[in-house]
Amino acid sequence: MTRSQKAPAARPAAQAPAPAARPQRPSGFAQYKTLLGKDLRQEFRTKEMLVSMGIYAVLVIVVYGVALSFARPGGEFLEVSGGLLWALVVFTSLLGLGRSFAAEKENGCIEGLLLAPLDRGVVFLAKATSNLVFLLVVEVIAVPLFWFFFSSFAHPGASAPLMVAPLVVGSVGIAGVGTLLSTITANTRGKDVMLALLFVPVIFPLLYACVSATTAALVGGDALADVFGMSLALAAGYDVIMILASWVLYDFVVS
Amino acid sequence: MDAAIEVRGLTKQFGGRRAVDDVSFALPRGAFLSVFGPNGAGKTTLLRMLATLTRPSAGDIRVGGVDAKEEPDAVRASVGLISHSAMLYPDLTAEENLLFYARLYGVPDPERRVLELLDAVGLRHRRLDRVRTFSRGMTQRVSIARALVNDPAVVLLDEPYSGLDPHAVEIFDELIGSVRAERTFVMVSHDLEKGRALADHVMVMARGRVVRFARADELDAEEFRALYRSTVGTGVA
Amino acid sequence: MTKKTTKLPETGQWPDRVAPAVLVAGALLTTVGFLMAFLVVPPVGGAAVGGAELIGGSLISNKLLISQKIFFFHMPVAMVSFCALAFAAYYCVWFLVTREQRFDTCAKIAMEISLLFVVMTMITGEMWTRFEWGVWWTWEPRLTTYLVLMLIVIAYLVLRNMIDEPERRATFSAVIGIIAFVDVPICFMVTRLIPSSIHPVVVREGGMSPEMGLCVGVIMAGMLCVGFALYRLRFRQVRLEQRVEAVKELLED
Amino acid sequence: MNPILVEIYSTVIPSAPYLIAAYALLWAALLVYVLMIMRGTKRAEAQMRLLEEAVAEQASRSRSER
């Protein structure tokens, strides 16, 4: 095996100059793309997480069906539907996040990542982005399905398409904080319960803001005007603060 | 010339117990060190600290003249680890796995490098198959290719022989032999014969401390076996 | 670079000499506050009454609410629980910087004190809500915030029991401690700014008359002293247990 | 009794139990925590005495061996 002749290591003044043949450490963004590419390729090949999250969402809708079969269709349902939708999103994402490190842990690949010259913030961003992509894919299926199954109860108001905004902002927050928490609970005993126990209280403010924004979008009319903008802004603010905190703290959590 | 690996006063404390207790040694470039000792002697912890996977409680490590605490990434760029966990993604193909790591380390012209490595480990024909379908021996060979993807100056081996059939062991030795030029190796193993055969430096550890560190030729086989039996006998943690 | 030796909190330092005196001061202040709440401060007016009566030199024209007296302890106790959480986050940051297990112990104890005071807040809040609005629970901003705080602190303590290895347990707990400290104020703000549509909240706190302010101040100071004294007491106990463990380990090998 | 006075004080009696319960539980919570600490301290001190004996006994044994 020919190994290109390494330049003799010069006297290491400050830092041994990397010999030409030695790989140059790529930019953070390049590493981010590599990591994300790996996550997406692996998931779209096995579709393990997507299928399980999709089926789980349908099952939750079935449970809602039974729960609401005795409720009188009509206006009240619209107010409740925002909350129901978000309950579906939270528990489906909990399932997805719980499994997000399964592949990594199964074969000690986490150590493979830790061995590489890679700062942990990039690992966090890549893993959060992949979790976000999977969550959005499932939402694109589950939300219309939800309205399909409950069309007999009520039709969302004209401003319903606005609902996409809180859904996206909320999913970003869930993926960000969720990735940090799932990394923590990945190797603790009782990891699923532990993830839920940590996730729900921490995500509560985001959930609160998103449900109010979604409900405002669904109900439409005057409720929409004053509440929607404020809730969305608060949700976005939550995302920025918590994702920044998670990004900074991730280095301690993953090593 | 700078020593490839320099370790001074290295300690790792887990709760009350000292897994590694004030270990110091230096290895010249191109050396092959075999580390022996009973279970719980701290061999693997020492190796993981060299690989910057575990944070030392005290002491410092210099790899190729670079301090691991100050510039961990510079050290990581020049270290490769082969352990019994393959660190490969089962649902990705052998080529995809190696390409992933090649890009992560920023290897110039990754495609060519990966094919070159797959040739070296003799798996070029299976490069499009998923690693899940590989035997333990083949997985280990891809794992070696992964560890060599960034052309590391230091290669760390943690119980590489565990679970390998004799044929796979033979290929493994051949591979290690072929890449030995100018690289420094540190191997942790229970296999006395294998360890001594490959090594030019030997270290015996017990309860986190270095019992003996010497060049392999200074220790003849008989004395070594007696030393090992004595430490294994008394050294059980 | 010489590792700067950070001064580790240890039993027997100045806080411990002060602790008994602080405990006495705490007890005194809270009793004084208690008496003030009932004797000095006039009860708050509730719903209007059909007429007006001269009682004790002032014209009273609405129902006098004794239940509001719970507020005098409810608010200070809640404040102390936030202070305890802040202390816990402070020690968590210190642990992540220095990796000294001692700071992790301090963070754990501060979290316990925070949980204790949140439970006390929930009790008093619960009783007040029960009488004030006639329901056992309403998703009213203050109560939900304390519920979320309580759940996070419980999650923190449960997480500690789920991990055995001291270093990893301390690191993960420190991260959760900081996340909690960042999360709770946001929760406090979000639940206030977005009006929950169920029923508008009649915020009784409103303007605080000088005597009420003083009374709350006294009880606050008292509760802070009690909290501090409990912290030191618990700290001494945990340190003693840690020393016992260390000696046991020495004896073994 | 003057009806207005009655109404003014009408909420006092019904609110009494909650008031008392609130304060009682408040002190109960503090008391429970202090008792927990005391019990823990006593147990730790007992163990410490036990260990001191063990150390003393080990020291004397090693002295007799020398």
Protein architecture, described:
The complex is a heterotetramer of chains A (255), B (237), C (253) and D (66). Chain A has helices at residues 28-46, 48-68, 75-100, 102-106, 109-115, 120-149, 164-186, 191-219, 222-254. Chain A is mainly alpha-helical and 255 residues long. With 237 residues, chain B is an alpha/beta fold. In chain B, 35% of the residues lie in helices and 26% in strands. Chain B contains 8 helices and 10 strands. In chain B, the strands form 2 sheets. Chain B has a 6-stranded mixed beta sheet with strand order 6-7-8-3-9-10, with helices on both faces. In chain B, strands 2-1-4-5 form a 4-stranded antiparallel beta sheet. In chain B, α3 (94-105) crosses α4 and α5 (136-147) runs parallel beside α6 (166-178). The longest helix of chain B is centred in the last third of the chain and has 14 residues, at 221-234. Chain C has 253 residues and is mostly helical. Chain C has a two-stranded antiparallel ribbon. In chain C, a hairpin with a 2-residue loop joins β1 (44-55) and β2. The longest helix of chain C has 43 residues, at 210-252. Chain D has 66 residues and is mainly alpha-helical. Helix content of chain D is 91%, strand content 0%. Chain D has 2 helices and no strands. Classes of the chains: A mainly alpha (255), B alpha/beta (237), C mainly alpha (253), D mainly alpha (66).
